[in-house]
Amino acid sequence: MALMRPLAEADLLLVIDVQNDFCPGGALGVPGGDEVVAVINRMAPHFHHCVVTQDWHPADHLSFASSHPGRQPLETVTLDYGEQVLWPDHCVQGSHGACFHRDLDWRGADLVLRKGFHRAIDSYSAFQENDRATPTGLAGYLRERGSRRLFIAGLATDFCVAWTALDAVAAGFDAVLVEDACRAIDLDGSLAAAMGAMTSAGVTITRSTAVTG
Ligand code: VGL
Ligand code: ZN
Question: Is 17 designated active site?
Answer without folding.
Answer: yes
